[in-house]
Here is the input.
Amino acid sequence: MSDAAFLGMPSFPKAARNALADTQLRRNLAHATGTIRQKRADVVGELDDWEELREAGRAIKERTLRHLDHYLLQLEERVTAAGGQVHWARDGEEACRIVTDLIRATGEREVVKVKSMATQEIGLNEALADAGIAAYETDLAELIVQLGEDHPSHILVPAIHRNRAEIREIFLRAMAEYGAAAPADLGDDPRQLAEAARQHLREKFLRAKVGISGANFLVADTGTAVVVESEGNGRMCLTLPETLISVVGIEKTVPTWQDLEVFLQLLPRSSTGERMNPYTSTWTGTAADDGPRAFHLVLLDGGRTDTLADPIGRQALNCIRCSACLNVCPVYERVGGHAYGSVYPGPIGAILGPQLRGTSSEVDRSLPFASTLCGACYDVCPVKINIPEVLVHLRARVVDESRERRMPTPERLAMTAARWVLSEPSRLGTAQRAASAGGRLLSRRGRIGRLPGPLSAWTDARDAPVPAEESFRTWWRRTRDERT
Amino acid sequence: MSAREDVLSRIRRALADVGDTEAPADVPVPRHYSPGGTPPAGSQEAVKLLAERLADYGAAVQRVTAETVATAVARAIAVRGGDCVVVPRGFPREWQAGLAPERVLSDAPRLSVHELDRADGVVTTAAAAIAGTGTLVLDGGPGQGRRALTLVPDYHLCVVRAEQVVASVPEALARLDPLRPLTFVSGPSATSDIELDRVEGVHGPRTLEVLLIG
Ligand code: SF4
Here is the structure.
């Protein structure tokens, strides 16, 4: 059940307690979120029209959602006219099946992949593994995690629990098994480690016949797809293979090319705190002499229409996955991403998860309570999602449902946990002060260098994947043996 | 029912609160944000701002003139020690005048990815540049080539003319053709995935150098 919350995931209070026990993780988390908060505040402060951009972003999303059928049909027509092929998927399972069949039709057994929230949400890598197809994640952090046979620990910097010596260790030990070996004299300087990753993945990029991506935006009136990234692995996946398959949630649509002028300003500044991320790629269908010869767009519902049906909850679909709300959230800063039990952590995860998946599981029912309603997330959200409003609304829904179904109410548990999470007043205070600084107040101080990479929109973002039944390494060994 | 019909009808059911007579344009989209234009496109201030912002993002920037551009191109490539650089079709002849022909690699006939991987660098023009964000935009037009050319080699030298420089994202998008594959480049690729240490250049060119004419 790839669409469900992680199987066996404890509910939020329990998972939060586990995460809180890990002080090192907490310190790293605080450092990461603090740095990015400051950078965001600085680059947002550079724009005098930030509030107007936010309002335009919100309004464009509202227009899109209220007429989503119209825009999707237009999008489909334009993508098709430009040489692309559009597929529709009711849920994650169907999307995985479509992608698997498309890859099978090419005869390939391996694909390169640029991280995307949508493919993570539907458990695509696991589905491909079951079909005997190796999906290589190409973000540096993902590589570290995949080679190290463990799970991402943090959405900003998934490999934050690994220090440089460990990463060197992992590279030396595991790279040779999956492809180009790490140089024997590999040191632990991040530069050398990045170089080793470059060499290791390059071979895969150069021979890849199929690339898989998500998209940050789909433009209805031109049929254009947009991917925002930092490392260049996205460009490799979008440009070099012969076949490109993009899996995208239906809510990623925007009406016009002009609308991108709003989102391409809002997203990088909110996400990595950069004026612009290193690379943004746009493409419309296929091009005669440039890039993949076949382009497949898989449009995913996966609970989005259920979310759309709730006029208050609907605004969660505005989300452009910048993760600014995570970085200002006092609860998130203290418990990290795993506690939210899905690929969507933090404040947005608390309102999106239960709506996409429904509120039948304990973890989903407790998520609307994983907040202090301090409002910092609303203030920073580039598309003005009123997260506290939706949280309160969902709480009411959960309580009503609990009464109807005579289930034990989760909110008492959750509130107890929240009190405990926030019991260190100094930490909460710091987080909240920093959060309001994320507005326009402290904006114009001296500029600081940008923080590249890790956040670079949520096409890049990651959190705990659905726990694999077998580790990547075991699976790889097994399928390779089967093949040879 | 096909998945397409199913999803579309779910959407229509979900939007029961939206009246039948409401058209997309009936949902107001206030565009009170700045359309750009300051500094004016092509102005000295715009070029200066672009130079600053590019440098901010770790690109090497040089201001040159129409007379010195050929020398600057040749020198930049010599300094890099590149034995062969890809020069896409349509790159102005006069700008490559200082390059030894045996150092120039053409993409016609099309280079294989492995040939491209052995090239030391690439020199291109651009379609537009955005001063406020320090961004170059490539659209595969003359002198730019297909996207892989500016991706696989480790060094990218880009020559930009002043009149191509606009202040803002809205102005740039209005100038670009969405039907062409576009790449927006803001500095060399980068990552902070290892202990939050910034490392420039992961998969894209690790060095980005820009010559601004005018
Ligand atoms: S909800 Fe959070 S992640 Fe989504 S756009 Fe708003 S701030 Fe960004």
In short: The two ends of chain A are 31 Å apart (CA to CA).
